[in-house]
Amino acid sequence: MNRKNRLRAFPACSLALDASVVAIGAFDGVHRGHQKVIGSAVASAERRRCPSVVYTFDTPPKAFFAGAQVLTSTEEKLRKIEMLGATCAVVAKFDREYAARTADAFMDELAKLNPHEIWVGADFRFGAKSAGDVALLSTRFNVRVLDAVCCERGEVISSTRIRKLLGHDPISANQLLGC
């Protein structure tokens, strides 16, 4: 992967590009499943010779809505994203105002990135009250959906599972994080 360029981070609504490939997600922990989504977007962007953009959130939505433990600080998340070779990161400040945005407003913002492709996980939702889903996103963009990544035992790798493991099995949690 191309690691020559330093990752450039931008606040939401501030980046416009002629072309891009975008990976979207909370990416809390940047675990092995997240790494697959981001890595797939970066590889596609390299093939297309355009910027790769990771669109993520500070605070992760699950932490905002449900008080879930945050696995990585925004700085650590950006460091891990940079190591995966992404060109740019859009970091949306997730607060009440952002959470109230409509699905259409989110898609209008994505349109400014002129994405050839958008990469997400199968459970991706967006917009106020999670009104938007992969099917809606696909009405405006070329969307690539990656299935969940499983560990060696066949269990899905997720931030929720990692949070549960941290208390009683930190070695397994770190394996899922890709440490």
Count of individual beta strands: 8
Radius of gyration: 15 Å
Ends distance: 19 Å
- Largest sheet geometry: 6 strands, parallel
> Strand percentage, roughly?
15-25%
Count of helix runs = 8
> Portion of residues in helices?
25-40%
Quick one: overall form? globular
Order of helices and strands: EEHEHHEHHEEEHEHH
Provide the low-confidence segments as ranges.
none
Strand order of the largest sheet: 1-4-3-2-5-8
| Main structural class | alpha/beta
| Chain-averaged pLDDT | 89
Describe the structure.
This protein is α/β, with parallel strands linked by helices. 38% of the residues lie in helices and 21% in strands. It has eight helices and eight strands. The relative contact order is 0.21. It has helices at 32-48, 61-66, 74-83, 96-99, 103-111, 134-137, 159-168, 170-177; strands spanning 8-11, 20-24, 52-58, 88-93, 115-121, 125-126, 132-133, 143-146.
Features:
179 residues, alpha/beta, 6-stranded parallel sheet, two-stranded antiparallel sheet, 8 helices, 21% strand
Secondary-structure blueprint:
Layout: E1 8-11, E2 20-24, H1 32-48, E3 52-58, H2 61-66, H3 74-83, E4 88-93, H4 96-99, H5 103-111, E5 115-121, E6 125-126, E7 132-133, H6 134-137, E8 143-146, H7 159-168, H8 170-177
Parallel strand pairs: 1-4, 2-3, 2-5, 3-4, 5-8
Antiparallel strand pairs: 6-7
Helix pairs in contact: 7-8
Summed up:
The protein is built from eight helices and eight strands, in the order ββαβααβααβββαβαα. It is an alpha/beta fold and 179 residues long. The strands form two sheets. A six-stranded parallel beta sheet has the order 1-4-3-2-5-8, with helices on one face. Strands 6-7 form a two-stranded antiparallel ribbon.
